[in-house]
Design goal:
By secondary structure, this protein is an all-beta fold. The chain is built from no helices and ten strands. It has a four-stranded antiparallel sheet, with no helix packed on it. Strands 2-1-3 form a three-stranded antiparallel sheet, with no helix packed on it. It has a three-stranded antiparallel sheet with strand order 8-9-10, with no helix packed on it.
Length: 121
C-alpha cells in the first residue's frame, strides 16, 4: 500500500497494489510512504486513517488473508492485527472522533465487524 502526498505536504490518499491500477500514482502527487505486511494480490483492499487519538495516528488496511492491519502512520510498522473474518477484508473505515474501526468481509464471510483497538501501543 502506498500513501501519496497530493496536497503540498499532507498525506491524503491511499492506493493499493500497483498491479491493480493502470496509473497507481495520483496526478501531481508523489509517493511519501509505503506500508507492507498485508496481503493484496487479487482485489483492491481499501484503507483508512484512524486519527481520533492524537497519540495513535494509524493507517488501517483490509487484507486478503481475512485480517485488518493497523500501521503506525510515521514508522510504518504494524502496531496491531485484528483477526475475525474468514474471507478477504476489502472494506475498512475509521470513526472520526472515536477509536472505532469497521471492516467488511467478502462473500464467504458476509460480516461487518466493529473493532476497538487495544489500548497498548
Amino acid at each position: 500500500m502506498r500513501l501519496y502526498d497530493v496536497s503540498g505536504g499532507h498525506e491524503r490518499g491511499t492506493f493499493g497494489n500497483e498491479r491493480l491500477h493502470n496509473n497507481p500514482q495520483p496526478r501531481g502527487g508523489k509517493c511519501s510512504k509505503t506500508y507492507a505486511g498485508h496481503v493484496n494480490t487479487k482485489f483492491c483492499a481499501f484503507a483508512a486513517f484512524l486519527s481520533s487519538n492524537p497519540r495513535r495516528q494509524c493507517v488501517v488496511s483490509g487484507s486478503e488473508d481475512g485480517k485488518v492491519y493497523m500501521y503506525d502512520l510515521q514508522s510504518r510498522l504494524i502496531t496491531q492485527t485484528l483477526e475475525g473474518h474468514n474471507d478477504a477484508v476489502l472494506a475498512v473505515d475509521a470513526h472520526d472522533s472515536l477509536e472505532l474501526i469497521g471492516s467488511g468481509g467478502m462473500s464467504n464471510d458476509k460480516f461487518i465487524r466493529f473493532w476497538a483497538p487495544s489500548r497498548e501501543y
